[in-house]
Write a structure and sequence with these properties.
Jelly Rolls; 4 domains; alpha+beta
Length: 462
């Protein structure tokens, strides 16, 4: 009897407190909050729910459940349906601190999964436990590899593409960190959409069936521990708002700002996207940082290449620094192109006996140069590579990396890292490398392969 009386008293005090706060709130704000409360009640908040026999689902309207190809396994207060979809698959939602997103057994050309970002979350880490999509292709000769058929993207609030590379190919074992703007109120919290767009498989498309399993971890901002957080956790458990997975403590650390990938172990390995055991191709137009956690006794880091093949400037002889990304001027490129074009024209004239026609169209080498210049400029506007330019600007940035006792460089291309035992960085600053690729690929060599590199922290001899 005493316990029942105490519970009623607590509820009464809570209700009175809410009433007082509500009464002291300006009328417009009360109406707005009332409308939003009603909206969330009507919508069910798209929160996780439990149905019959412990079946899990998301709380949505019955019509939306039908659109998601789901099955109602219970009711959600007040008018929602506890909708069970294929386990953590297309059309699903999650507001848990840890969730999984798997490919559907039934092929779908578009597959979305939504993450309702929790309060006090600063980053989301996505681990690609399994990730196999169609390989990137080159839309035209000389263009960089791109995801034309299958692609994985991230959207915020359904319509804004997030600043993360579009991915395809083989990426099992990779991960990415997604920065989140932490919000303080429920109504401002973000929703992240993980989106797969796939090409239907038929007799004309020989790529294997795509599949994936992604682990999504919401990482809270670093805050000073207080008793309030303990009270909040206890309250969540009492109210059964915290799932079994939420109770587990995540092992992942927050990444430094600006890092797409972050490795917290003292040693390990990392590789380019779609490395695919050395059989894949990296994508064009990438520019991202890979970071490593330094400990109190860390004074540097060592890199040893298992495989390293990045496009290089075929017109230069070295494979570090400016020789990796020095672009030729327009006049140089057009002169080379004009010379090549003149030689081709001469050969065609001899074989086809069309000297007079060729002479009319190409009156002189100056005219040829002018035409090629126009073609070059048009290509630049359309983001196409210059004619036969043979110029790359891809590289891996290892800031002031020593590849011998006396030689160091910051940009590496071709197979240079395979030629040396290791590259070391000695610094008291952040530990990172960065990968940069352009929108051009070789027309004569298969050199856009990527890398796999072992790393280990250094704590002595610096």
């Amino acid at each position: 009897m005493f316990k029942m009386f105490a519970a009623i008293t607590v509820c009464a005090v809570a209700a009175l407190t809410v009433s007082v706060v509500y009464a002291q709130t300006p009328t417009d704000e009360r109406q707005a909050k009332g409308l939003m409360f009603g909206f969330h009640m009507m919508e069910g908040g798209k929160r996780s729910c439990n149905g019959f026999n412990g079946q899990t689902g998301v709380c949505v309207g019955q019509n939306e459940c039908t659109k998601m190809n789901g099955k109602s396994v219970g009711k959600c207060f007040p008018f929602g349906s506890c909708c069970s979809v294929a386990p953590n698959s297309c059309g699903g939602y999650s507001d848990s601190s840890t969730s999984y997103f798997e490919s559907s057994e039934k092929f779908q050309e578009t597959c979305d999964y939504k993450i309702n970002v929790r309060q006090n979350v600063c980053q989301i880490r996505i681990d690609f436990e399994r990730f196999s999509l169609g390989q990137p292709t080159k839309p035209y000769n000389g263009s960089a590899y791109t995801c034309e058929n299958d692609e994985f993207t991230l959207l915020v609030n359904d319509n804004t593409k997030m600043n993360m590379p579009v991915l395809c190919g083989e990426n099992s074992g990779q991960h990415v960190y997604v920065p989140i703007n932490p919000k303080t109120t429920l109504n401002d919290r973000q929703q992240i959409t993980l989106k797969f767009k796939l090409t239907a498989r038929d007799d004309d498309y020989e790529e294997p069936t795509p599949f994936w399993k992604l682990k999504i971890s919401q990482l809270e901002c670093q805050v000073a521990p207080t008793n309030w957080w303990k009270v909040k956790d206890i309250a969540r458990q009492i109210l059964k708002e915290k799932s079994a997975e939420d109770v587990k403590t995540t092992k992942y650390s927050l990444a430094p700002e600006g890092c797409l990938q972050y490795f917290a172990d003292k040693d390990g390995s990392f590789e380019s996207f779609n490395y695919n055991k050395g059989k894949g191709h990296y994508l064009g137009n990438l520019n991202y940082a890979v970071c490593f956690k330094r400990n109190l006794d860390t004074c540097g880091i060592k890199f040893e290449a298992v495989k390293f093949q990045i496009a290089y400037n075929q017109n230069l002889t070295n494979f570090t620094d400016r020789d990796c990304d020095t672009l030729k001027s327009v006049s140089e490129s057009t002169t080379v192109a004009a010379t090549t074009l003149a030689a081709t024209t001469k050969a065609a004239t001899t074989v086809a006996a069309t000297a007079e026609l060729v002479s009319t169209e190409w009156a002189s080498i100056d005219n040829a140069t002018e035409k090629v210049t126009v073609k070059y400029r048009d290509a630049r506007k359309r983001k196409l590579p210059a004619v036969n330019s043979g110029v790359h600007s891809d590289y891996l940035l290892i800031p002031d990396g020593y590849y011998s006792e006396t030689l160091f460089a910051s940009k590496y291309c071709n197979k240079l890292l395979e030629s040396y035992d290791n590259v070391k960085i000695k610094t008291q600053g952040p530990l990172y490398v960065a990968f940069v690729s352009d929108d051009y690929s070789s027309t004569t060599e298969d050199v856009e392969k990527g890398y796999k590199i072992n790393y280990s922290l250094i704590n002595m001899g610096c």
